[in-house]
Known about the structure:
This protein has two domains: 11-248, no CATH class; 279-411, no CATH class. The protein has 17 helices and no strands. It has helices spanning 11-31, 36-59, 63-67, 70-75, 78-83, 94-97, 102-138, 143-170, 173-198, 206-225, 230-248, 279-292, 295-314, 320-343, 346-349, 355-386, 394-411.
Amino acid sequence: MSNQAIGGWRAGSLFRRRVRRFWTEQWKAWRTALDWTVWVYVLVPAVWIIGGTYADLWHHPPAWLANLPLWTGERLPLVVVFAGRFRSFAEEADVLFLLRKRSWIRGLLLRGAAYTAGVLLLLSAVLYAVLLPFFAGVHHYRAGAIVMMLVYTWIWGCVGAVWRNLLEARYAGFRKWLVKTAVTLLLAAAYLVPMIVWGSAPAMLAAPAGVGLVVCAGLLRIKLRARDAFESDARQEQLARLASTQLLLRNVIEHKPRVRLSRPVLLRRSNRLFRRFDGKTMLAEMIMKAFVRRMALIRTWLGFTFVSTAAVFLSPAVIQPFVGAALLLLLSTWIISHWRGMLEEPFFAQFRWTDHALRGSAGLVRFWLAAPAAALFGLAGGARTYGAWGLLAAIPAVLLWLLLSNVVTSTMVLRLDRKGKGA
């Protein structure tokens, strides 16, 4: 009963109905914002100005357009490779009966692939139409070369769309972010390397375009055989249907924070970091665990550390220790602000910490969260000044940071309010 009608419906008619309903919903959403005043006062003048500017680029190319290097136009179409999204038009109700009809699911996915390819072809055509004054007017590319570049971009855009769809169903959490980042870099390299090497002779792109076509066919075959991708497809389709509404109402509706329950990347188990059980050690350990388990804080810490390491490396050898000390004090200020914020949370506020415990925990948190940065500063500065033997400078750098951190902790004055929080 793969091709038999069920209640007058076939896979093709069901797909057409869903596509028609999708675009009807998008038009209704945009029609609420695009009334006649928007058309008269905004869109019509914008089309007039953009059209006039485009025509002027053809007849009188400005100097900045002629001075742009060729690689600028070759890299802009990478947007198509990154922007493509595979559309399956799956719905949550399909789990009731449609999942049992593999032929129907296969038919919907094949039509969804054709729809995705059509949208990406239109997007590629629009992008290259915008770039025509650059390629044809400035660099005098022939029509066949531009068409070859368009087809090449379109094929790798389809590869990216199917590949990202498969990753959405296979991975979750930090692993999905890591794999998607690696795939994005791989796609960029696979697309840009042939474009850079053979950009001046676009006819040579036929071979990498054929490779992309084979890769796309293989990924599509994997997609058709996948058995665990329905929930991911339904979720992505729901986001696609709501994209226009969310865009129009982004400044109107108050967004409530989304509660996500996920395992932390580091320190997933409640193991001890220190052996001592006194108040300052226990408080410092809990705050350090909370810091390491928050990915946003780790990204900020890594960004600051890497940029600061580059600053130490590029500084003259005479002032490297002073630059490193200043950056470590700046980093420790941010760490202590996190420490103070943690004390304001209800879990920590329910305990009455002594002045000694607060002072000691602040010192431990400051030292251990900034010690890796101090070691990197020592590695970078020592390697530049003394070569391979300079890598040992990480040890005195950490020891100097220990001394500096103890001095700061001993001079720090903590005031306690009535609730026992650090002020």
